[in-house]
Each structure stands twice: as structure tokens, then as C-alpha cells.
Specification:
Helix 3 crosses helix 5. The protein is α+β, with helices and mostly antiparallel strands and 291 residues long.
């Protein structure tokens, strides 16, 4: 190979190296963020910007490094913790939390990894559950205010983790149960409380029943007395009317009145008793001359 050919080969090699370098610089100047991703751009280890929207972006080759984080919801499963309620009941809460990375810049500066976020949530969720349980009774946590307790626990946890670029969307209780050593004692206490309430309700029911029976008896007596009074008045009016009618009849026909009264006497005093009378005696004397 002559000198001219050698020079041409060197030029070709240099051009190839330059071309490869240009391609590498070109490739290193762009980066892609997917729809389910967000990122921070580091320049010599320092955050220079954060990217939350998907697309194709420019960066300084060889100097900028892109750290990507997910936008998806992340589930955190806390270890069961024992707390004491406001009415001095020991309970064990098995909790979960759902969170997402809301601020990639703060997240990278303070935590950097999902595992680090879950470790921070350990303390935050435990503190939130302890605060909520300390202000609520056993019945409120289990039944009457369970939803409100979860909302408050979520708010407290989110207040503590927002500085790390993490947003807690939901704190929930998978299970709430009694410690094994307290379970029987709590059950006995619950049974005694329910028995006390049942006895109180039965006593109130008996009192109401006695009051209703007394009122019913009083009403019955008053109604019966009024009915008897009305009946006596009606009978008195009937007897008076009967006496008036009889007096009128006796005045018009005395023999008929005596005849009827004699028949009434026989009927009342000699029921089903044969009576033998001679003609013109007893009641028969009123029949003289009757056609």
C-alpha cells in the first residue's frame, strides 16, 4: 500500500469514528417517557428538571441521566399493629395503603425508591392508626364510625408523606381483631354489657305494660260505669213509661188490669204448677159475661 492509499484509509477511519460519535451523541440527546412514567433529569448528579407528561424529550448527552418512576398506584401492606382505643380496648389492626408518586422531584431528593417509600409508610400508617384509635371507641372503629375513621387515617398519613412526594389515596383496615390474651375478657365484657342493656329494656317494657294495663282498666271501669248509668236511666224511663201505660189501661178498664196482674202472679209464683179453679173463682171471675 502506497502513502496515498494509507492516507485515504486513515481518513475513512476518522470519518467512521466521527460518524459513530455523531450517532451516539444524537441517540444520547433524546429520551422517551411513556404514558405510565414520570422522570427527573440529573445533570452530574443534581436534579435539573422533572418530567410528568409522556413524549420525546431532549437532554444533554453524556451529562444528563434520566431516572424514571411509575405513575401507577402502588399498594403497601403494613404489618399488624396493636393499639388502645379511647375506651381502653386493645385491638390489632392489619392495614393497607394505596399511594402514588405525586412529585418525582421531591420523591427523588427524599426517598428515591419505592422500597424507601414503603419504609416511610410503616411509621406514618402506624401513627395514623394509633391517633384514630386513641380518639374512638371500640364500637365506633368497628361499626358506627368506621368510614370516618378510615378517612381521618388517610388524611393523617397523607399529611406526613406529602413532603416526600408521595400521595396516599387510601388507608384501609383488612382486619381488626382482638389480641388473643384479651379476646375472652372482651367477649365477657360485651356479653355483660348487652345483658345489662337487655335487662334495662325489659324493665322499661314492663313499666310501660303496667302503665298501659292500668289505663285500660281505668278506661274499662269508666266506660262500664257510664254504660250501667245509662242502662239504669233507660230502665227507669221504661218502667215509668210502663207504669204510665198500665195506669192508663187500669183507668180505662180496671177488670182487665186485675186480670193481667193475676196472670202475672200465677206466672211468677206458680210456674208450671197445675191450678184448679171453680167457675167464678180466682181469675175466672174476670171472665164472667165475656163473649
Amino acid at each position: 500500500m502506497n502513502v496515498q492509499g494509507l492516507g485515504q484509509a486513515v481518513r475513512n477511519a476518522v470519518l467512521l469514528v466521527l460518524l459513530v460519535a455523531l450517532v451516539a451523541v444524537g441517540i444520547g440527546s433524546f429520551y422517551v417517557i411513556r404514558a405510565d412514567q414520570q422522570a427527573v433529569v440529573l445533570r452530574f448528579g443534581k436534579v435539573v428538571r422533572s418530567v410528568r407528561d409522556p413524549g420525546l424529550y431532549l437532554k444533554m448527552p453524556f451529562a444528563d441521566v434520566v431516572e424514571r418512576f411509575t405513575k401507577r398506584l402502588i399498594e403497601y401492606d403494613a404489618d399488624p399493629v396493636a393499639v388502645v382505643t379511647s375506651d381502653k380496648k386493645n385491638l390489632v389492626f392489619d392495614s393497607i395503603a394505596v399511594f402514588r408518586i405525586a412529585d418525582p422531584d421531591a420523591f427523588y431528593r427524599r426517598i428515591r425508591t419505592v422500597e424507601g417509600a414503603q419504609q416511610r409508610l410503616d411509621d406514618s400508617v402506624y401513627a395514623a392508626v394509633r391517633i384514630v384509635a386513641g380518639k374512638s371507641t371500640f364500637d365506633e372503629l368497628i361499626f358506627s364510625r368506621r368510614g370516618d375513621s378510615l378517612v381521618e387515617a388517610t388524611r393523617i398519613t397523607n399529611d406526613q408523606t406529602s413532603a416526600y412526594g408521595v400521595e396516599v389515596l387510601k388507608v384501609a383496615f383488612k382486619r381488626v381483631f382482638l389480641p388473643q390474651e384479651n379476646e375472652e375478657a372482651v367477649y365477657r365484657s360485651m356479653i355483660a354489657e348487652r345483658s345489662r342493656i337487655a335487662a334495662q329494656l325489659r324493665a322499661e317494657g314492663r313499666s310501660i305494660a303496667a302503665r298501659l294495663r292500668s289505663k285500660a282498666q281505668r278506661d274499662y271501669t269508666e266506660i262500664l260505669a257510664a254504660a250501667q248509668k245509662q242502662a239504669e236511666e233507660t230502665r227507669g224511663q221504661g218502667d215509668a213509661e210502663a207504669q204510665r201505660i198500665i195506669a192508663d189501661a187500669a183507668g180505662q178498664n180496671p177488670d182487665l188490669y186485675l186480670f193481667l196482674r193475676t196472670l202475672e202472679f200465677y206466672k211468677e209464683n206458680l210456674p208450671e204448677t197445675p191450678v184448679f179453679l171453680k167457675p167464678g173463682e180466682g181469675i175466672l171471675r174476670y171472665l164472667k159475661g165475656a163473649e
